């Protein structure tokens, strides 16, 4: 007999509001509905998004479009080799009038922080985001400051083979809920882009379609989406499989299991369901897990990517039988 649970409040409103946000973003980003859906999913899962691809495919445009679609505070950080940690978190400056040190907040104090080309900064500067992304707080000179809610970091990066890039520390990659690759647009979408973007940028006309309070309510509704014990065990089985795969020398962390479940809740809610099914985990496993994994020497030599390894594990790990709720 299936277990029944109360339907999370405002689920219909969540779907409607999320649809408006997606439509607003897709008015700027043509032909990338999957990337846009994943972006909204990560936001509702209280996570952070890493957008990785070659220059010029719309990584920064996607991040800015989401930021403009929500009436919230937004700060942009251009990561460069000479960027310092204090340029992100803020610094305590001495006020000669009061003869006291005053904290001047950095750009991390915003609802949405857009980090452009994050892997062009040194690992020391990149690590300044670790506490912010995991604990939603910043510690400067021994004083801890709470960050605003909601809080989301959307970072773009070029492939590591590109000139002038540094590899992201494993600890920081693990704090990104998901990674999405934009890819080149289809010819029809690129032709439409030439027509739409030819004169002025459509992002200049983009107006907010949701408020910060609405996003908070949506996040609260996502937290109430039901996850059965069988689905939780399936998530653990997928993550454990990465730790025992001979193709990987670094498997997924326990943090990735938590973030996979959170993202699955948001994915189910966007599908107008108040419960998670195995299909949600399967669809999110690659974007949520693959960027955290390191291939073995043999797999690297065979040009087998973590994305391919995770896809194979999805096919091999037994899927539980579920009865909805």
From TrEMBL:
Belongs to the MoxR family. SUPFAM superfamilies: P-loop containing nucleoside triphosphate hydrolases. This is MoxR-like ATPase. Residues 241-312 form the ChlI/MoxR AAA lid domain. It comes from Nonomuraea soli. Its EC number is 3.6.3.-. GO terms for molecular function: ATP binding; ATP hydrolysis activity. It holds the Pfam family AAA_lid_2. Keywords: ATP-binding, Hydrolase, Nucleotide-binding. Residues 48-177 form the ATPase AAA-3 domain.
